[in-house]
């Protein structure tokens, strides 16, 4: 079977500027595939649902706030069960793999994929691939059943283990063939989704009837298009404990300073939302917003001012903030981890030391600084109620899509609706806080901190922003959590 080397984007156009960025389907490259009636129509759990199945033409807009004369714009295929499926349940042999760093909710996603396949579709041959991508060709697997995964959502981490790197597309697909696997569920961040895209391309080149499905995972919430990543709500909630401890330490001492380092290699969403939720933070530093230490309007001047006003202060810094400043004062490094991420220097320790050095020159203002780094504690905890619900939606949507024959897609939430997004859309760029958007302005208003930006910095940030569209605020979802619009996700203001 001869197939072109790269799968072309499926763009379907309609009236009034409607564009559907569709996802691949097995029938695109395998002809005359048999279809089967969806077992859900006989499932007692779905007997109360007025409409069992999603209409074929259902789609979800990426931008929800438009002008009356605006084109309808980009849409994604709506997730959900279809009337016809392309897999006979008895023939399905599925596998699940987790890759990259830990994140609250990993075990919940694993559990719900297993239970969704089993309870909704009667699939009983499900394998867990141990240790990330290299587990495929290291031949490490464990059988997964609803009984074996029954209570794993109560634990942090992942029962399958994880690793960075180890991606060898040919070996992985060889192993998929050898094991006769026909559904592959891959849970991981943007690097993992890039790997999943390569696996899909190789599967397609070989003409295999294998659905390759991604579930996006990043605690930093830096995957584009989707409203938010699972584990993010839990991370923000848990970060409050560290901020609360820093606040207690700071206010209990004269000129007390609490410094808290939070996750955020390239994107400062956790630090921003934790700061807004806490109300105890005096200053928040994130990778997207440069800052400087000395001189008029600098961080040191602001710290002195806040200590004189309140007698204490709390400072939150994302792990990727201030890397240029550290590089100027320390020997920089271009080393990377196995996933290709640059190894960052510890901004928390560096900043704490710089603050101490500054105030040693001011004997009239003795400070008491406490530094807290809860990073790995936050990554390792189980997900909270909100994230558990979200993980269930992501997992079940992925299962519905695979059974319906869709492949080469990521399951994600767009404008509060579950959708299927082509791999290339979630890997083409990174979601970042836009410091010219309203959410960052809200934070500056809440903390009353300076922006540390010159007029030129602001103009440059505005130029780097995506083409201008109407601004909008985040909505509040039924669970009481922020459900940002896709426009805000696209521009980094979740």
From TrEMBL:
Gene3D superfamilies in alphabetical order: 3.40.50.450
Subcellular location: Cytoplasm
InterPro entries reported for this sequence: ATP_PFK, PFKA, Phosphofructokinase_dom, PKF_sf, PyroP-dep_PFK_TP0108
Regulation: Allosterically activated by AMP.
Binding site for substrate: 218-220, 263-265, 319, 376-379
Cofactors named for this entry: Mg(2+)
Keyword DNA-binding: no
Pathway annotation: Carbohydrate degradation; glycolysis; D-glyceraldehyde 3-phosphate and glycerone phosphate from D-glucose: step 3/4
Site (Important for substrate specificity): 191
ATP-binding found in the keyword field: yes
This protein's name: ATP-dependent 6-phosphofructokinase
Enzyme class of the recorded protein, top EC level: transferase
Gene Ontology MF, one: metal ion binding
Main subcellular localisation: cytoplasm
Subunit comment: Homotetramer.
Occurrences of domain Phosphofructokinase (ranges): 94-400
Organism name: Spirodela intermedia
Amino-acid positions noted as binding Mg(2+) in the UniProt annotation, renumbered to this chain: 190
Its EC number(s): 2.7.1.11
Region spans: Disordered: 457-494
Family assignment from sequence similarity: Belongs to the phosphofructokinase type A (PFKA) family. PPi-dependent PFK group II subfamily. Atypical ATP-dependent clade 'X' sub-subfamily.
Keyword list, A-Z: Allosteric enzyme, ATP-binding, Cytoplasm, Glycolysis, Kinase, Magnesium, Metal-binding, Nucleotide-binding, Transferase
Residues that hold ATP according to the record: 101, 164-165, 189-192
Gene Ontology terms: cellular component: cytosol
């Amino acid at each position: 079977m001869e197939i072109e080397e790269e799968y072309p984007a499926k763009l379907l156009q309609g009236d009034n500027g409607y564009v559907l960025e569709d996802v691949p389907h097995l029938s695109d490259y395998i002809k005359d595939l048999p279809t089967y009636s969806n077992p859900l129509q006989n499932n007692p759990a779905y007997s109360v649902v007025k409409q069992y199945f999603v209409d074929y033409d259902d789609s979800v807009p990426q931008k929800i706030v438009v002008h009356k004369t605006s084109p309808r714009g980009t849409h994604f295929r709506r997730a959900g069960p279809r009337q016809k499926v392309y897999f006979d349940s008895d023939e399905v042999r599925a596998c699940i793999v987790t890759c990259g760093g830990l994140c609250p909710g990993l075990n919940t996603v694993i559990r719900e994929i297993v239970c969704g396949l089993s309870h909704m579709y009667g699939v009983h041959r499900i394998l867990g691939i141990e240790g990330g991508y290299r587990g495929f060709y290291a031949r490490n697997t464990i059988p997964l059943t609803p009984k074996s995964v029954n209570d794993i959502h109560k634990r942090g981490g992942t029962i399958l283990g994880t690793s960075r790197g180890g991606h060898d597309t040919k070996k992985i697909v060889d192993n998929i063939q050898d094991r006769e696997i026909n559904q592959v569920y891959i849970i991981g961040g943007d690097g993992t989704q890039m790997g999943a895209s390569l696996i899909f391309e190789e599967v397609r080149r070989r003409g295999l009837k294998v659905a390759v499905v991604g579930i996006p995972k990043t605690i930093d919430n830096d995957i584009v298009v989707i409203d938010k990543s699972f584990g993010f709500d839990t991370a923000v909630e848990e970060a409050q404990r560290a901020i609360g401890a820093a606040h207690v330490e700071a206010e209990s001492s004269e000129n007390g300073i609490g410094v808290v380092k939070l996750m955020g290699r390239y994107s400062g969403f956790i630090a921003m939302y934790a700061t807004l939720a806490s109300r105890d933070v005096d200053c928040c530093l994130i990778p997207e917003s440069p800052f400087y230490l000395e001189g008029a309007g600098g961080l040191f001047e602001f710290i002195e001012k806040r200590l004189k006003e309140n007698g204490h202060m709390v400072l939150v810094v994302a792990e990727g903030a201030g890397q240029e400043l550290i590089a100027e004062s320390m020997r920089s490094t271009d080393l990377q981890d196995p996933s290709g991420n640059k190894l960052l220097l510890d901004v928390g320790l560096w900043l704490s030391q710089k603050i101490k050095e500054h105030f040693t020159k001011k004997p009239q203002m003795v400070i008491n600084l406490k530094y807290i780094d809860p990073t790995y504690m936050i990554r390792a905890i189980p997900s909270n109620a909100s994230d558990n619900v979200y993980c269930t939606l992501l997992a079940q949507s992925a299962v519905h899509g695979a059974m319906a024959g869709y492949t080469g897609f990521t399951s994600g939430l767009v404008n509060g609706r579950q959708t299927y997004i082509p791999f290339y859309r979630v890997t083409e760029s990174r979601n970042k806080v836009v410091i010219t958007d309203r959410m960052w302005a809200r934070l500056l208003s809440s903390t009353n901190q300076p922006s540390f930006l010159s007029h030129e910095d602001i103009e440059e940030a505005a130029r780097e922003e995506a083409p201008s569209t109407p601004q909008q605020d985040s909505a509040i979802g039924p669970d009481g959590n922020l459900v940002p619009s896709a426009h805000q996700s696209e521009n980094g203001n979740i």
